[in-house]
Amino acid sequence: VIVMVLLFMTIVVSTCIWLTRLYYTEHVDLANRNLSNLLVLQKQFHDHFFEDLSGLVQFINTSYQPSRQINPNTITIHYDAVVRDYPALIQPLLVLDVDGKVIYDSQPDTPLLDTDLSQQTYYLAHTQETRTGFFVSPPLESDKGWSITLSQAIRDAADNLLGVVKMSLSSELWSESISSLEALQSYSGMIALDDGTILTGVPYHTDQIASLIPSTTIDDLRASTSLQPLPSLTASDTVFMKLDTLDHLPVNLLVTVPFT
Fold first, then answer.
1. Mean pLDDT by 10 residues, the chain (260 residues)
2. In sequence order, what are the beta bridge partners of 192?
3. Cβ(64)–Cβ(154) under 8 Å?
4. CA 180, CA 195: separation in Å to the nearest integer?
């Protein structure tokens, strides 16, 4: 009788272990599919967005090359068209010459025209190294909330610096732009620089912006070939998390789904 009981208990325990492993495997597979789908949708949204921004910079670059003169009206028309599609873009759009002086200001009264901004990080980032894409600043807080500065160099055919285009994104409006898309209604995660600085997140939490994700978390996610449960970066629960990068911007997309 004892042998039969032990055998029965062994079968029950083995079956429970098998069912638990099966559930966990299916749970991980589902989470992996969900995260992969979210990343694809995120990349499509952002690639389209930053392709448009790159197109605006390329237009300014091309129009500036022959005479190094700016046509404010033409730039404003192109800029306004992008802003209509992406309200996360906020004033002003600035064009700086090679010395860092503002030669175009999108604001109605052009208050920054002729201002020397040669000591700003978004300008120096392009004078100190040959950067081909966007420079992205850590978030800056003002009375209007958190914003991120983007800048890209204007260069000639020989790769000489001719100037810099600078624009800004609202962290909160960036988050709202993602959340407003029906295809991304289930999105939860954040966008961060390589050093872990959080630029924006969905859902949006003001106190989360500019805080740091441990760099080891980003490194581990990059190196990982399988999905593992991790502590949530914004709460006390456990989540599955996956990371990807954007083609047009040096940032990381981190998406999460609940572990349970």
1. 69 63 60 78 82 88 80 88 87 93 92 95 87 88 93 89 93 89 77 92 91 83 77 72 83 81
2. 198, 252
3. yes
4. 28
Report pTM: 0.82
Q: Which two tokens stand for residue 49?
A: 């967005």
CA 251 to CA 193: how far, in whole Å?
5
Q: Which residues contact 42 (CB under 8 A, 6 or more apart)?
A: 178, 184, 187, 189, 244, 253, 255
For residues 207 and 67, what is the distance between their CA atoms, to the nearest angstrom?
46
Residues comprising the chain, all counted = 260
- Write the DSSP symbol of residue 59: H
Residue-wise pLDDT tens digits, 37-53 = 778 888 888 888 888 88
* Contact present, 211 and 186 (Cβ < 8 Å): no
Please give the sequence-ordered ranges of beta strands (E in DSSP) within the chain, or none if there are none: 89-97, 102-105, 135-136, 140-142, 145-155, 161-170, 189-192, 198-202, 229-231, 238-245, 252-258
Those residues with Cβ within 8 angstroms of residue 156's Cβ, 6 or more apart along the chain or in another chain: 65, 162
Q: How far apart are CA 173 and CA 147, in angstroms?
A: 9
Q: How many CB atoms lie within 10 A of CB 186?
A: 11
Paired residues of 242 in beta bridges: 255
Return the beta strands (E) in 63-110 as ranges. 89-97, 102-105
Q: State the amino acid at position 118 in one-letter form.
A: S
